């Protein structure tokens, strides 16, 4: 057997060249096929591209605007429904909301004036608001515009301002507004700050005035202001368990003291329970300094009562001391001869009686 000869160098080179040409031709064929596919895809998507080209493009800086809220009219002005509800809550009513006390702090305060302010806020809670930020423009006796703006923004008609200075240390100013304007204000010096007297939620504190408030016209107005401050909301019925606090307001010379008491109900011999008063904390003692009197026109306007709340007059009706109601009827002149009475056969006259 003849031995196998190794392939020559020329033969190997020829095979390598042939393989390279084949690979090149194969790659060319693939590229041509891919080119045909891309052209067909472009022809398929040309209508969509043309439609997209005709659409107006949005500028990059343009943002999407939110939808406008539906507007309604209130008092001749266009407002949103939420704004209308807010304005209706602030509008005048036949039965107004309970008065709110706005507690403010001046540029400089002392511990006693701040403690007196907090004790008043706790006593009138939840109808009180406390603003802890110190303010420099709170001078109701000089310029009351800042106080009126703050009370209008917080829907409050009563205010209390705590301040302290070298001329007037431990100062406390109490006042009230009517129709957004300052009605009257009183400046006190805090003699004793008193302690915290927080009442239960929903309870109705009672107020007792001890002293000759009616002898002095200024103290008479102070009593009227304190009644307005401590009255609370109007209710139709009162539960005995809800009366747990009694505030005794006393007057001695020019010093007013507010002493809170706890009312304890204990079992009694009859149907009603026995009541016991217990002192709860030190009193709040205030010494009178200055006052701001309202104008006569503004005072008369504050005393006016709306027509819807005025009770109707009951004519020809009176009530005795025993609670009996007597009525009076007014009848016109009656002609008795022309009254038609009922004819009864038993009372009819016979013919014999007529002949006689």
TrEMBL record:
Where does the UniProt annotation locate this protein?
Answer: Nucleus, Nucleolus
MF (Gene Ontology):
rRNA binding
* Keywords for the protein's UniProt record, in alphabetical order: Nucleus
Domain of life, per UniProt, equals: Eukaryota
Q: Where is the Brix domain?
A: 99-297
Which stretches of sequence are listed as region Disordered? 46-85, 267-288, 305-356
Among Pfam families, the record links this protein to: Brix (PF04427)
Protein family (similarity comment): Belongs to the RPF2 family.
Protein name per Swiss-Prot or TrEMBL: Ribosome production factor 2 homolog
Organism from which the protein derives: Pelagomonas calceolata
Highest classification ranks of the organism:
Eukaryota, Sar, Stramenopiles, Ochrophyta, Pelagophyceae
């Amino acid at each position: 057997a003849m031995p196998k000869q190794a392939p020559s160098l020329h033969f190997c080179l020829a095979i390598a060249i042939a393989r390279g040409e084949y690979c090149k031709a194969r790659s060319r064929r693939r590229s041509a096929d891919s080119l045909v596919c891309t052209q067909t895809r472009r022809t398929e998507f040309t209508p969509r591209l043309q439609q997209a080209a005709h659409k107006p493009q949005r500028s990059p800086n343009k943002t999407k605007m939110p939808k406008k809220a539906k507007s309604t009219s209130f008092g001749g002005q266009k407002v949103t429904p939420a704004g209308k509800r807010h304005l209706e809550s602030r509008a005048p009513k036949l039965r107004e909301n309970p008065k709110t006390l706005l507690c403010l702090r001046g540029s400089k305060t002392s511990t006693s004036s701040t403690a007196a302010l907090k004790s008043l806020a706790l006593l009138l809670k939840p109808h009180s608001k406390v603003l802890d930020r110190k303010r420099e423009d709170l001078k109701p006796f000089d310029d009351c515009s800042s106080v009126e703006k703050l009370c209008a923004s917080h829907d409050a008609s009563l205010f209390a301002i705590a301040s302290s200075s070298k001329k007037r240390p431990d100062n406390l100013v109490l006042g009230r507004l009517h129709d957004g304007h300052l009605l009257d204000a009183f400046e006190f010096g805090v003699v004793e700050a008193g302690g915290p007297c927080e009442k239960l939620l929903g309870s109705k504190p009672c107020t007792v005035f001890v002293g000759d408030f009616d002898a002095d016209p200024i103290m008479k107005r102070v009593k009227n202001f304190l009644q307005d401050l401590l009255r609370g909301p109007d209710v139709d019925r009162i539960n005995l368990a809800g009366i747990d606090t009694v505030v005794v307001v006393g007057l001695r010379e020019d010093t007013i003291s507010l002493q809170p008491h706890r009312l304890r109900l204990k079992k009694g011999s009859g149907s009603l329970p026995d009541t016991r008063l217990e002192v709860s904390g030190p009193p709040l003692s205030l010494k009178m300094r200055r006052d701001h009197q309202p104008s006569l026109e503004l005072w008369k306007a504050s005393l006016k009562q709306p027509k819807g709340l005025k009770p109707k007059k009951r004519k020809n009706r009176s009530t005795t001391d025993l609670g009996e109601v007597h009525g009076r009827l007014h009848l016109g002149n009656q002609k008795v001869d022309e009254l038609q009475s009922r004819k009864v056969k038993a009372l009819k006259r016979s013919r014999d009686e007529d002949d006689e």
